[in-house]
C-alpha cells in the first residue's frame, strides 16, 4: 500500500514551453501533497505544500506564478512549470500524506526528470 | 566506516562491514526524524524513523540513534551489502501551520565495495 506515481518519468522540452507533471496516490487518499526539486548531488528542496481543495503554500523564493500547483482531488496533484528555461532543468519529486494515517508519514513518488533545451 | 555530514560526503565501506552515517540537525524543536535512502534517478525510500522521546530505534539491519543534547542523528547499517549503495538523507519533521513538512539534510553517499 501507499504507492505514489508520477508522470511523466522524464520530459525534454524547448525553452519557453510549459510542462505539466502529475502526481497520483494510487491506493490512498492524499489530503496533503508536497513538491520538491532536486539538483544533481544535492538534497531535496521543498517547493510547496498543497492541501486538497485549497491553494498551495509556497516556500520562500519559489515563484508561484512559474510553478503552478493544483490539488483538485484527493488522489491527484499537478505541477506545471510555465515558460520553462534551462535553469528549471531538475529532478522534481512529489510526496503525499495519507489522511488516514499518522501525520508524520510521507510517501514519495519516483520523480520526474525535466530537461529544458 | 563513519562520516560526518556537513557537506556531501562519500562513505566507502567493504561488503559485510558496518556503516555509520551521521547527521546534524538544526531545529531543537523538531520532534520527529527520518532516514531515507535514494538510489540514482529514483525518489527517496523510507528506511526508519524516530521520535524525539526516544534515543534509539532498531529495524532490520538498521539502527537510528538520536542525541538531542548535541542535535545529532546517526544511522547504523549492519553487514552492509552492495544493494545498500545509495545516497542517505536525514530529515527532521517541522510543523508549518497544520502540516508537518520535512527539512532535509545534505545527504551522504554510501559506496559498498564487494
Task: Give an account of the 3D structure.
The complex is a heterodimer of chains A (117) and B (114). Chain A is mainly beta. Chain A is 0% helix and 54% strand. In chain A, the strands form two sheets. In chain A, strands 2, 4, 5, 6, 9, 10 and 11 form a seven-stranded mixed sheet that branches. In chain A, strands 1-3-8-7 form a four-stranded antiparallel sheet, with no helix packed on it. Chain B has 114 residues and is mostly beta strands. Helix content of chain B is 0%, strand content 57%. In chain B, strands 2, 4, 5, 9, 10 and 11 form a six-stranded mixed sheet that branches. A five-stranded mixed sheet of chain B has the order 1-3-8-7-6, with no helix packed on it. The mean pLDDT of chain B is 90.
Keyword list:
heterodimer, A: 117 residues, mainly beta, seven-stranded mixed sheet, four-stranded antiparallel sheet, 11 strands, 0% helix, 54% strand, B: 114 residues, six-stranded mixed sheet, five-stranded mixed sheet
Mind sketching the topology for me?
The complex is a heterodimer of chains A (117) and B (114).
Chain A: E1 4-7, E2 10-13, E3 19-25, E4 30-38, E5 44-51, E6 57-58, E7 67-73, E8 76-81, E9 90-98, E10 107-108, E11 112-116
Parallel strand pairs in A: 2-11
Antiparallel strand pairs in A: 1-3, 3-8, 4-5, 4-9, 5-6, 7-8, 9-10, 9-11
Chain B: E1 2-3, E2 10-14, E3 19-24, E4 32-38, E5 45-51, E6 56-58, E7 62-67, E8 72-77, E9 86-96, E10 99-104, E11 108-113
Parallel strand pairs in B: 1-3, 2-11
Antiparallel strand pairs in B: 3-8, 4-5, 4-9, 6-7, 7-8, 9-10, 9-11
